[in-house]
Specification:
224 residues, mainly alpha, three-stranded antiparallel beta sheet, globular
Length: 224
């Protein structure tokens, strides 16, 4: 039986995507989302006549990429070939659906892992973060993005993808750390859940804006 029958089809898919991210899958593949949505709501997303056995992948993929799909609504961001991540807007919708309209106030101080503290110092020193925070997104260059990702054009394709995945995972871990509180970094900066959201959104924005650059880099280094 569906456990969230009161929600619309896009909302059910969004909640399945959020479940994947809570489980540490960020970004997640279209295939993982198909399975997660079907497991969560087999009656909605099951193949006709075999709802309890197989998912109807076409129904979910259409809801992802159609004119009224989650990507077009701004709830999900495509960050690679069949790879997706929740946007800030998507997270806001999830909180509304779960009656968590705003994150809990940062009433307690939580500890930040040393490697994450060091990463945040580097990120906040980057030109990408400064331009993004100053509302100068259109001035961002691929060079800014490369410094934010800590990559160079000499990386092999597999190393490039691994470096991007490490940053995504670290940002997800940092977000979970401050979900119910705030951290005081080694430089005295108070770092909150909203701050973590901003960095995650910036990373998604850069991956989307410079997707063609990354593809060209992968292809060029792949031929070396």
């Amino acid at each position: 039986m569906d456990t969230i029958a009161e929600f619309t089809v896009p909302e059910k898919i969004l909640l399945a995507a959020h479940h994947l991210e809570e489980a540490g899958q960020s970004p997640f593949s279209a295939e993982a989302l198909i399975v997660a949505a079907w497991q969560q709501s087999p009656r909605t997303f099951g193949l006709k006549g075999y709802a309890e056995l197989y998912p109807d992948s076409n129904k979910i993929l259409t809801s992802l990429m159609g004119e009224k799909g989650l990507a077009r609504r701004g709830w999900l961001n495509k960050v690679g070939q069949k790879l997706y991540a929740l946007t800030r807007e998507g997270r806001h919708v999830v909180r509304r659906l779960r009656h968590e309209d705003t994150p809990p106030p940062p009433s307690e101080t939580v500890g930040m892992a040393k490697e994450h503290d060091k990463l945040l110092q580097v990120l906040y020193g980057s030109t990408a973060v400064r331009k993004y925070q100053d509302g100068r997104k259109q001035e961002l260059t691929f060079a800014d993005a490369c410094r934010f990702w800590n990559i160079t054009e000499n990386l092999q394709g597999s190393v490039l993808d691994a470096r991007l995945q490490v940053l995504r995972s670290a940002l997800s871990d940092i977000e979970r750390t401050v979900r119910n509180g705030h951290a005081v970094l080694s430089d005295g900066r108070v770092f909150s859940f909203d701050d973590a959201n901003v960095l995650t959104d910036l990373n998604l924005y850069l991956e989307d804006r410079f997707a063609r650059h990354l593809t060209l880099l992968r292809n060029r280094t792949g031929r070396n």
